[in-house]
Write a structure and sequence with these properties.
Blueprint lengths: L5 E4 L8 E7 L3 H8 E3 L12 E6 L5 E10 L10 E7 L2 H13 L3 E2 L4 H8 L5 H12 L3 H11 L2 H25 L6 H22 L2 H9 L1 E6 L6 H9 L17 E7 L2 E7 L9 H15 L3 E7 L6 H8 L5 E6 L9 H5 L5 E4 L8 H12 L12 H22 L4 H19 L5 H9 L6
Parallel strand pairs: 1-7, 8-10, 8-11, 11-12, 12-13
Antiparallel strand pairs: 1-2, 2-6, 3-4, 4-5, 5-6, 9-10
Helix pairs in contact: 4-5, 6-7, 6-15, 7-14, 14-15
This protein binds guanosine-5'-triphosphate (GTP) and magnesium ion (MG).
């Protein structure tokens, strides 16, 4: 238990309905009773009961008309006694109440100190503490959902499940080294290597960097294609709004034009770009360069082709370069076809959709496909999103791969055991078992004061 009592304003600054001063620690009750006078005496400081009354200064003068609650340990956010005073919004009255709490012996809380106490007092593990912060800063419904799953123990559950499986593998390893006459070494090696490979794959899948970034920052979708194929028209169709200029003149779009779009609750950015071609126009050339760079950094590239004209070199170059981020949109499929999906199928493995930005044909299917590409971790509960977790997960997976290599090279099985233990140690750092003070400090450094 911490000796001192901390206090801070828990709500955001600026004008608002209410502002909450939060106090946590052994003195929270004593301090509240000096600041707050309840209007109805029989409600006098019953735990977890919201009371109406006045906050007063040292002379008993009213600071504000407030609601207040005293929550006795241990059923509180920090597992300590917690008092909250709900003042009128704006900073003036909450500040006055905070100053009064400080004058009564509370100390100003540091960033994330309430949550740090929840962690120190064993109420939540480190991964859940981080999820609190992520939830606060989530900028989309999907990001918020992912944080909430982690707050509810998604990451911790995943770490526990993987660690349990590694413990089983270790047990098998130890059996084969301790009782070589009973366990056939070669069979054991193969079984161990297979499990480790599978576990490493699963860890890497949960720690997928691209998914994590898409969840945190939103996915980026970039339109690519040669001039006049209908990129800007498709951008407008997806946004349901005449945002980009559309003309029949090739080379209409010059710059990268980016808009926000929500697909299945995931926030994404969609960018229209200049049509790609060799050109002497210096302005258009810069545009084409920017178009290339935008596509390089994108999570999804929509390669747009004109179905009504023969493909040129630029088109086939784009189709051949299509990687797993690409969706090929065969646009203008309302016109008599010159290029067909079958024809493209022989050139690429990428997904091909026949669409028309003009009539709307295939747009719904395209949105569904986009949703599948950028929807992250809906089905797997333990999708990691925090950078710290992802780095630890990858380094744990690397240790397991190392163990597999050792086994494949015919090294003694206890060499692999060392790597497995190392992987387990990395995983336990995610939830904060054995986390050093420095690691804990770094985690809470990024928190806001009052949480
Ligand atoms: N029939 C038909 N015409 C289309 C379709 N999509 C776009 N167009 C027409 O094709 C022409 C070019 O459309 P844009 O959307 O400006 O093409 P773009 O790829 O953005 O062209 P740049 O900006 O020059 O690279 C316009 O005249 C559009 O009306 C479609 O699905 N069907
Ligand atoms: Mg355009």
């Amino acid at each position: 238990m911490n000796e001192d009592t901390i206090a801070a304003i828990a709500t955001a600054g600026g004008t608002g309905g209410i502002a909450i001063v939060r106090v946590s620690g052994g003195e929270a009750g004593t301090i509240l009773k000096k600041i707050f006078i309840p209007a109805v005496k029989r409600e006098y400081f019953e735990s977890h009961r919201l009371m109406y009354g006045r906050a007063v200064d040292a002379d008993g003068e009213a600071l504000d008309e407030v609601m207040a609650v005293l929550m006795r340990a241990p059923s509180t956010y920090t597992r300590e006694d917690v008092a909250e005073i709900h003042c009128h919004g704006g900073s003036a009255s909450a500040n006055a109440v905070l100053v009064r709490a400080l004058s009564l012996g509370a100390r100003m809380a540091g960033p994330g100190e309430f949550t740090r106490r929840a962690f120190m007092n064993g109420r939540i593990d480190l991964a859940r503490a981080e999820a609190v912060m992520q939830l606060i800063s989530a900028n989309s419904e999907a990001a918020a959902r992912a944080s909430l799953r982690q707050l509810e123990g998604g990451v911790s559950g995943f770490v526990r499940q993987v660690s349990d499986r590694l413990k089983d593998v270790l047990a098998l390893l130890e059996a084969s080294t301790d009782f070589p006459e009973e366990v056939e070494e070669e069979a054991a090696s193969e079984a161990v290597a297979a499990s480790l490979r599978e576990i490493a794959r699963e860890i890497r899948r949960h720690g997928d960097r691209r998914s994590a970034r898409m969840l945190r920052e939103g996915a980026s979708i970039v339109l690519a294609g040669r001039p006049n194929v209908g990129k800007s028209s498709l951008m407008n169709a997806l946004l349901n709004q005449e945002r980009a200029i559309v003309t029949s003149i090739p080379g209409t779009t010059r710059d990268v034009l980016t808009e926000r779009i929500s697909i299945g609750g995931v926030m994404a950015e969609i960018s229209d770009t200049a049509g790609r071609r060799d050109t002497q126009d210096p302005i258009e050339r810069i545009g084409v360069d920017r178009a290339r760079r935008a596509a390089e950094g994108a999570d999804v590239v929509l390669i747009v082709l004109d179905a009504a004209v023969e493909m040129d070199e630029e088109d086939s170059g784009l189709v051949k370069s299509a990687d797993d981020r690409a969706i090929i949109c065969l646009n203008k499929s309302d016109l008599p076809p010159v290029v067909t999906a079958q024809q493209l199928n022989s050139m690429t493995d990428a997904k091909i959709l026949e669409i028309s930005a003009q009539t709307g044909k295939g747009i719904e299917e395209l949105v569904e496909e986009l949703g599948r590409r950028i929807a992250v971790g809906e089905e797997n509960n333990g999708q990691l999103t925090a950078q710290r977790h992802i780095e630890l997960a990858h380094s744990a997976a690397d240790s397991l791969t190392q163990a597999v290599k050792a086994i494949e090279m015919g090294m003694p099985l206890d060499t692999a055991a060392i790597d497995i233990r190392e992987a387990m140690a990395k995983l336990s750092e995610i939830t904060g078992e054995n986390a050093t003070e420095a690691v804990i400090d770094r985690v809470f450094e990024s928190f806001c004061v009052g949480k």
